[in-house]
Amino acid sequence: MRRAVELASRGLGSTSPNPVVGCVITDAAGTIVGEGWHERAGGPHAEVHALRAAGEAARGGTAYVTLEPCNHTGRTGPCAGALVDAGITRVVYAVSDPNPQASGGGATLRAAGVATESGLLAEEAEAGNAAWLTSVRLGRPYVLWKYAATLDGRIAAADGTSQWISSAESRADVHRLRAEADAVVVGSGTLRADDPHLAVRGVEGAVQPLRVVLDTHATIRPTARVLDAVAPTLVVVGEDADTRHLTGVEPARLPYDKRGISVDALLRELYGRGVRSVLLEGGPTLAGAFVAAGAVDKVVGYLAPVLLGAGPAALGDAGIATLTDALRLRITETVRIGADIRVTAVPTATPSDPSVPAAPTAPKEH
Which residues are catalytic, by number? Predict the structure, then answer.
């Protein structure tokens, strides 16, 4: 199963709106005879790739799958049926499928006389498929907030200079995060200060994410780098913004509040566009708005061995007035990246956004 989890990770960034799934098949003697993973949306699922690799050796064998085999017929047939037809006699899956339109594969397998087990390495499989699982369960995209800061928590100096706080290795690692996301989100402040490009560089075979700019009053310049043709871009403006200067751009108009564009409305908009994972790269104001909305599922901080003593902090006003209301995190990983330390943490309580209604869950694309 751990090998299946590893295989599933190879699909990050290319399977949305589908999950990432890995599958390993062993023969009747327990020898691995087939491996596969879901490589891209619309393509064969992991089980199909593994069964093709195994051939007749799959008969009488066991399939280890990171997600309950689907029971849905779309552009390909249900994986549960494919496993039965191949003569698999035992299926072990890590996580049950929470999608009511595609779940039930375990029951189908049992009805066909196939022994099933669930829950093996569930935590590892859940972590690897967090974006898709979150989108199904909450009806909104999964949000990873990334920032780079000094050891004293500053993202820029007092004069606004910020390039480069983090190391070249950390910046390269951010491109990996972009490649794994469906959308990269920044606000107008970051756009004015840095004129970021936001496209993926240096990651072979990467699918470029949707670049999303939150610009309440449509202050973006037509020459902004983010408006080039390298990757798709969505400019999100307030309902009453004047966008006549943005020729060739079709902005999305969303409601806004005292913090700017409504995070709730933005997540609904992105979900409706098929976005299931968001990399939040905006500055402290935008990060504060997402934290206040309960819409941050993971935090990745790149901490550089630098001290500034003044300048903007990584997180702005998040509506937290007292320590008892602090968003508590659990550190899941610390890694040395170049001269920096990358810290990964998740909220100790599952983030939720009650103002975003659970969207009807679409079946896994085939």
Answer: 47
